[in-house]
Amino acid sequence: MHRRLFLQGGMAAGVASTGSFSGLFSVPAIADVAKRSNKKCILLWLCGAPSQFETWDPKPGTETGGPFGAISTNVPGTNVSSLMPRCATIMDKLAVIRSMKTQPGEHFQGIDVLTRGDKPRPPFTRPILGSVIAEQLGQLDSPVPQFVLLDPCPEGNEFKQFKAGNWAGWLGAEYGPVRAGGDYSIPNINRLEEVSEVDHADREALRQFLSQKYENDQRSDAAASHNAAFNRVKGLMSCAPLFDLNRLPEADRQRYGAGAFAQHALQARHLIENGSTFVMVANGMQWDNHVFQHEMHQMLVPELDNVLYQLIQDLEQREMLQDTLVIAMGEFGRTPWLNEARGRDHYPNAWSMAMAGGGIAGGVVHGATDDLGFEVIDGKVDNRNLFATIFKALGVDPYQEYDLPGLPTFRRVEEKAEPILEILV
């Protein structure tokens, strides 16, 4: 909370309530900040794009539905794929969108739009969702990183968005992600044994003085980003144990499952519990099943089913679910038909995703597709509607304008696209 806002609110509240805290939080500006200050978000990024037919929008017994059936859930009248029996038992906590219709049909563009909220408008670089949430809801001075990306391939895969790049856009490098993965720890952050603690502190103080002087003298954004990176490393050195999964109970690790995606989901819960604001859990390109669709999804969907179940149950038991938004999605869906290799190809025309927790109403299914899953027939929404919903659920203004020198006006959500009110609390 900004100090000036706090003082202004305190003076206003004092008139009505002699400065009591109950009066303070009755001031709308203060109450709004306080309400969203504890909000967190975990994005389960299903890179490659899962099939809606084998997850949230089954079409059993049809020529497009595939070999798997549909099962009832604890919400009467709502079915999910038979590959998701655990999620069927917590459907009252989930909101499913079956009517996503987006434009990009290739991974590169799809990832960009579904992680940043809109297509590129050069020279403006739109910040990725995690950077926006870290900037709006995070604590920049916290040693715990506010935006963490957990990826089994932390060095980056074939897609540019998952390599080192301009994640935070115009917000600046301090809001970019701390990237970890692989062996579930952050390498190369321990002080060398031959450098004493005093020497290390002295060296850092000298570096900080010289860098800050250069930044001030030159008014250099690059130097500011450089300094922000060093400050982040200093914080990481103090909270490195948070990234060590060996410190977590073995029973928890077994519940989530042995795979990298499952272990990273557990790590995300642990990080959120200990001070991170946004954690993105990626899983490589496993869902891009152009070959042997049904065999691959028969392995992948049960893992997702268990991860969602364990994560949502854990957050609820810890009384964190109402303040933690969980999102599970990829960059588009899969075709209703199979190709010659018995795989489903890219399909942005009609696909599904799910959310739960902070700000989201459980037990709701929004939208519908036709009997074969070719088209959206009810409740069509796109990436802009989705991001307006996410921001609204987290208490972030979806339509804030970015007035950047020399550039047109930009908003977090362009054209004031409406959120999906049906799934908001």
Describe the sheet with the most strands. 8 strands, mixed
Low-confidence stretches: 1-8, 10-26
Structural class of the helices, strands and pairings?
A: alpha/beta
Could you report the average pLDDT, rounded to the nearest whole number?
85
Q: Would you state the CATH class of the largest domain?
A: Alpha Beta
Number of domain units: 2
Distance between the termini: 24 Å
CATH-assigned homologous superfamily of the largest domain: Alkaline Phosphatase, subunit A
Descriptive notes:
This protein has 425 residues and is α/β, with parallel strands linked by helices. The protein folds into two domains: 25-185 and 260-423, Alkaline Phosphatase, subunit A, CATH 3.40.720; 188-243, no CATH class. The protein is built from twelve helices and 16 strands. The protein has helices spanning 3-17, 21-24, 28-36, 85-88, 107-116, 129-137, 197-218, 221-239, 250-256, 260-273, 293-317, 383-394; strands at 40-45, 70-72, 79-81, 94-100, 147-151, 178-181, 278-282, 324-329, 333-334, 346-347, 351-357, 364-366, 368-369, 376-378, 401-402, 410-411. The strands form five sheets. It has an eight-stranded mixed sheet, sandwiched between helices.
Which terms would index this structure?
alpha/beta; two-stranded antiparallel ribbon; 425 residues; globular
Summarize the structure.
Helices cover 35% and strands 15% of the residues. It has 425 residues and is an alpha/beta fold. Residues 1-8 and 10-26 have low confidence and may be disordered.
